[in-house]
Design a protein that fits this description.
- By secondary structure, the protein is mostly helical.
- It has one domain: Orthogonal Bundle (Arc Repressor Mutant, subunit A).
- The protein starts with 7 loop residues before the first helix and ends with a helix.
């Protein structure tokens, strides 16, 4: 895998919405395709996905403290 400098910055901006399944299907497919071919974006995806998983563990009471 190698980074695609033409798509990288744009794709990284879409990672949050991609992880939350908030992108239109065509755009989600484009992000998935890009992640298969770009090490840097794949690493960014892993970090953002991990953060989203950790946030999901929080309870509302945790946020109010």
């Amino acid at each position: 895998m190698t980074a695609d400098p033409g798509e990288g910055p744009h794709m990284r901006q879409l990672l949050g919405a991609y992880i939350l399944d908030a992108l239109p299907a065509e755009e989600a497919r484009a992000v998935a395709r890009h992640l298969r071919g770009c090490d840097r974006c794949a690493a960014d995806y892993a970090a953002v996905a991990e953060a989203a998983d950790l946030l999901a563990l929080l309870r509302e009471e945790d946020l109010l403290e």
